[in-house]
Amino acid sequence: DIVMTQSPDSLAVSLGERATINCKSSQSVLYSSNNKNYLAWYQQKPGQPPKLLIYWASTRESGVPDRFSGSGSGTDFTLTISNLQAEDVAVYYCQQYYTPPFTFGQGTRLEIK
Amino acid sequence: EVQLVESGGGLVQPGRSLRLSCAASGFTFGDYAMSWVRQAPGKGLEWVGFIRSKAYGGTTEYAASVKGRFTISRDDSKSIAYLQMNNLKTEDTAVYYCTRGSSSCPAFDIWGQGTMVTVSS
Fold it and tell me: Which of A62, A97, A99 is the mutation pick for testing B, counting most B CBs within 10 A?
Protein backbone atom coordinates (compact mmCIF):
# COMPACT_ATOMS: atom_id res chain seq x y z
CA ASP A 1 0.00 0.00 0.00
CA ILE A 2 1.10 3.59 -0.65
CA VAL A 3 1.57 5.46 2.61
CA MET A 4 0.79 9.18 2.58
CA THR A 5 2.55 11.30 5.19
CA GLN A 6 1.60 14.92 5.76
CA SER A 7 3.56 17.58 7.57
CA PRO A 8 3.04 19.33 9.82
CA ASP A 9 0.19 17.74 11.78
CA SER A 10 -1.04 21.21 12.66
CA LEU A 11 -0.10 24.79 12.00
CA ALA A 12 -1.24 28.25 12.93
CA VAL A 13 -0.94 31.08 10.44
CA SER A 14 -1.91 34.76 10.69
CA LEU A 15 -4.73 36.14 8.57
CA GLY A 16 -3.44 37.28 5.21
CA GLU A 17 -0.30 35.16 5.45
CA ARG A 18 0.63 31.97 3.59
CA ALA A 19 0.08 28.41 4.81
CA THR A 20 2.07 25.52 3.40
CA ILE A 21 1.20 21.86 3.88
CA ASN A 22 3.39 19.05 2.64
CA CYS A 23 2.50 15.53 1.58
CA LYS A 24 4.91 12.72 0.82
CA SER A 25 3.97 9.39 -0.74
CA SER A 26 5.91 6.19 -0.09
CA GLN A 27 6.11 5.57 -3.81
CA SER A 28 5.65 7.68 -6.90
CA VAL A 29 2.07 8.52 -7.91
CA LEU A 30 3.17 9.86 -11.29
CA TYR A 31 1.69 7.76 -14.09
CA SER A 32 4.28 7.84 -16.86
CA SER A 33 1.90 7.14 -19.73
CA ASN A 34 -0.01 10.41 -19.24
CA ASN A 35 2.48 12.33 -17.08
CA LYS A 36 -0.17 12.95 -14.43
CA ASN A 37 0.25 12.83 -10.69
CA TYR A 38 -2.65 10.93 -9.10
CA LEU A 39 -2.80 13.18 -6.06
CA ALA A 40 -5.69 15.19 -4.61
CA TRP A 41 -6.16 17.64 -1.75
CA TYR A 42 -9.34 17.93 0.32
CA GLN A 43 -10.57 20.41 2.90
CA GLN A 44 -12.81 19.32 5.75
CA LYS A 45 -14.55 21.70 8.09
CA PRO A 46 -16.15 20.54 11.36
CA GLY A 47 -19.37 18.62 10.85
CA GLN A 48 -19.02 18.63 7.07
CA PRO A 49 -17.90 16.08 4.50
CA PRO A 50 -14.56 16.64 2.78
CA LYS A 51 -14.45 18.98 -0.18
CA LEU A 52 -12.21 18.45 -3.18
CA LEU A 53 -9.79 21.37 -3.66
CA ILE A 54 -7.09 20.12 -6.01
CA TYR A 55 -6.69 17.11 -8.29
CA TRP A 56 -3.93 15.93 -10.62
CA ALA A 57 -1.72 17.53 -7.93
CA SER A 58 -2.20 21.05 -9.28
CA THR A 59 -5.61 21.42 -10.98
CA ARG A 60 -7.98 23.52 -8.94
CA GLU A 61 -11.54 22.21 -8.69
CA SER A 62 -14.21 24.50 -10.10
CA GLY A 63 -15.26 27.17 -7.62
CA VAL A 64 -12.17 26.85 -5.42
CA PRO A 65 -10.55 30.24 -4.79
CA ASP A 66 -7.27 30.81 -6.58
CA ARG A 67 -5.49 31.39 -3.27
CA PHE A 68 -5.39 27.57 -3.08
CA SER A 69 -2.66 26.01 -5.19
CA GLY A 70 -1.03 22.62 -5.46
CA SER A 71 2.43 21.68 -6.65
CA GLY A 72 4.87 18.81 -6.71
CA SER A 73 5.46 15.61 -8.62
CA GLY A 74 6.41 12.01 -8.03
CA THR A 75 6.47 11.61 -4.26
CA ASP A 76 6.54 15.16 -2.87
CA PHE A 77 3.62 17.53 -2.97
CA THR A 78 2.59 20.85 -1.45
CA LEU A 79 -0.68 22.63 -0.83
CA THR A 80 -0.27 26.39 -0.51
CA ILE A 81 -2.94 28.70 0.78
CA SER A 82 -2.10 32.32 0.11
CA ASN A 83 -3.70 35.30 1.83
CA LEU A 84 -5.21 33.11 4.54
CA GLN A 85 -8.85 33.83 5.34
CA ALA A 86 -10.80 32.95 8.47
CA GLU A 87 -12.95 30.51 6.49
CA ASP A 88 -9.85 28.46 5.62
CA VAL A 89 -9.72 27.03 9.14
CA ALA A 90 -10.12 23.31 8.52
CA VAL A 91 -8.34 19.99 8.34
CA TYR A 92 -6.61 19.31 5.04
CA TYR A 93 -5.95 15.86 3.59
CA CYS A 94 -3.92 14.65 0.67
CA GLN A 95 -4.91 11.43 -1.10
CA GLN A 96 -3.39 9.25 -3.77
CA TYR A 97 -5.70 7.69 -6.34
CA TYR A 98 -2.87 6.05 -8.29
CA THR A 99 -3.69 2.55 -7.09
CA PRO A 100 -6.09 1.04 -4.57
CA PRO A 101 -6.23 1.28 -1.65
CA PHE A 102 -6.67 5.00 -2.29
CA THR A 103 -4.92 6.14 0.85
CA PHE A 104 -5.21 9.47 2.63
CA GLY A 105 -2.66 11.36 4.63
CA GLN A 106 -3.32 11.71 8.35
CA GLY A 107 -4.53 15.29 7.97
CA THR A 108 -3.18 18.72 8.82
CA ARG A 109 -5.16 21.00 11.10
CA LEU A 110 -4.95 24.66 10.08
CA GLU A 111 -5.76 27.36 12.60
CA ILE A 112 -5.52 31.13 12.76
CA LYS A 113 -2.66 32.56 14.81
CA GLU B 1 -28.26 19.39 -8.45
CA VAL B 2 -25.61 16.70 -8.20
CA GLN B 3 -26.18 14.89 -4.92
CA LEU B 4 -25.31 11.79 -2.93
CA VAL B 5 -27.42 10.80 0.06
CA GLU B 6 -26.40 8.03 2.42
CA SER B 7 -28.80 6.12 4.62
CA GLY B 8 -28.97 2.98 6.73
CA GLY B 9 -26.65 3.88 9.59
CA GLY B 10 -27.43 3.23 13.22
CA LEU B 11 -26.48 1.32 16.34
CA VAL B 12 -25.60 -2.34 15.86
CA GLN B 13 -24.07 -5.00 18.07
CA PRO B 14 -20.65 -6.51 17.33
CA GLY B 15 -20.87 -9.45 14.96
CA ARG B 16 -24.08 -8.23 13.35
CA SER B 17 -24.66 -6.87 9.86
CA LEU B 18 -25.80 -3.57 8.38
CA ARG B 19 -26.38 -2.34 4.85
CA LEU B 20 -25.78 1.26 3.86
CA SER B 21 -27.27 2.85 0.76
CA CYS B 22 -26.07 5.79 -1.29
CA ALA B 23 -28.70 7.37 -3.52
CA ALA B 24 -27.37 9.48 -6.37
CA SER B 25 -29.11 12.19 -8.35
CA GLY B 26 -28.26 14.89 -10.84
CA PHE B 27 -25.73 12.90 -12.88
CA THR B 28 -25.42 9.71 -14.92
CA PHE B 29 -24.71 7.32 -12.08
CA GLY B 30 -23.57 4.45 -14.29
CA ASP B 31 -20.67 6.49 -15.67
CA TYR B 32 -18.96 6.78 -12.28
CA ALA B 33 -17.00 4.62 -9.90
CA MET B 34 -18.42 4.84 -6.39
CA SER B 35 -16.29 4.75 -3.27
CA TRP B 36 -17.01 4.51 0.43
CA VAL B 37 -14.82 6.45 2.87
CA ARG B 38 -15.20 6.35 6.65
CA GLN B 39 -14.13 8.57 9.50
CA ALA B 40 -13.98 7.33 13.07
CA PRO B 41 -14.89 9.91 15.72
CA GLY B 42 -12.13 12.51 15.94
CA LYS B 43 -9.97 10.66 13.42
CA GLY B 44 -8.89 11.04 9.82
CA LEU B 45 -10.31 9.70 6.58
CA GLU B 46 -10.05 6.02 5.70
CA TRP B 47 -10.89 4.70 2.24
CA VAL B 48 -13.06 1.61 2.60
CA GLY B 49 -13.47 0.44 -0.96
CA PHE B 50 -14.96 1.15 -4.36
CA ILE B 51 -16.84 -0.31 -7.27
CA ARG B 52 -15.89 0.53 -10.82
CA SER B 53 -18.44 1.50 -13.41
CA LYS B 54 -19.80 -1.22 -15.66
CA ALA B 55 -17.65 0.17 -18.47
CA TYR B 56 -14.63 -0.84 -16.40
CA GLY B 57 -16.02 -4.19 -15.38
CA GLY B 58 -17.98 -3.20 -12.29
CA THR B 59 -15.28 -4.81 -10.17
CA THR B 60 -14.52 -3.95 -6.57
CA GLU B 61 -11.49 -3.22 -4.39
CA TYR B 62 -11.36 -3.04 -0.60
CA ALA B 63 -9.15 -1.85 2.20
CA ALA B 64 -7.43 -4.67 4.06
CA SER B 65 -9.28 -3.72 7.24
CA VAL B 66 -12.67 -4.65 5.73
CA LYS B 67 -11.83 -7.18 3.02
CA GLY B 68 -13.89 -10.33 3.43
CA ARG B 69 -16.43 -8.59 5.69
CA PHE B 70 -17.69 -5.70 3.55
CA THR B 71 -19.19 -5.88 0.05
CA ILE B 72 -19.91 -2.98 -2.28
CA SER B 73 -22.51 -3.31 -5.00
CA ARG B 74 -24.45 -1.01 -7.29
CA ASP B 75 -27.80 -0.84 -9.01
CA ASP B 76 -27.40 1.49 -11.95
CA SER B 77 -31.13 1.29 -12.77
CA LYS B 78 -31.88 2.87 -9.38
CA SER B 79 -28.73 5.03 -9.13
CA ILE B 80 -27.87 3.47 -5.78
CA ALA B 81 -24.64 2.12 -4.36
CA TYR B 82 -24.61 -0.22 -1.39
CA LEU B 83 -22.18 -1.12 1.35
CA GLN B 84 -23.00 -4.44 2.98
CA MET B 85 -21.15 -4.72 6.28
CA ASN B 86 -20.98 -8.13 7.97
CA ASN B 87 -19.35 -9.29 11.19
CA LEU B 88 -19.11 -5.71 12.40
CA LYS B 89 -16.46 -4.79 14.95
CA THR B 90 -16.30 -1.91 17.40
CA GLU B 91 -13.51 -0.41 15.33
CA ASP B 92 -15.94 -0.05 12.41
CA THR B 93 -17.67 2.74 14.32
CA ALA B 94 -17.48 5.77 12.04
CA VAL B 95 -19.28 8.17 9.78
CA TYR B 96 -19.53 6.51 6.38
CA TYR B 97 -19.42 8.70 3.30
CA CYS B 98 -20.09 7.72 -0.27
CA THR B 99 -18.32 9.58 -3.02
CA ARG B 100 -17.76 9.36 -6.75
CA GLY B 101 -14.89 9.40 -9.17
CA SER B 102 -14.62 9.12 -12.92
CA SER B 103 -12.04 8.00 -15.45
CA SER B 104 -11.40 11.64 -16.38
CA CYS B 105 -11.25 12.75 -12.74
CA PRO B 106 -10.70 9.80 -10.38
CA ALA B 107 -10.47 12.18 -7.41
CA PHE B 108 -13.58 12.31 -5.25
CA ASP B 109 -15.42 15.41 -6.40
CA ILE B 110 -18.84 14.86 -4.82
CA TRP B 111 -19.46 13.57 -1.29
CA GLY B 112 -22.59 12.72 0.63
CA GLN B 113 -23.25 14.10 4.09
CA GLY B 114 -22.46 10.74 5.66
CA THR B 115 -24.28 8.27 7.86
CA MET B 116 -23.14 7.27 11.35
CA VAL B 117 -22.55 3.64 12.20
CA THR B 118 -22.02 2.76 15.85
CA VAL B 119 -20.95 -0.76 16.73
CA SER B 120 -21.45 -1.38 20.41
CA SER B 121 -22.95 -3.93 22.76
Answer: A97
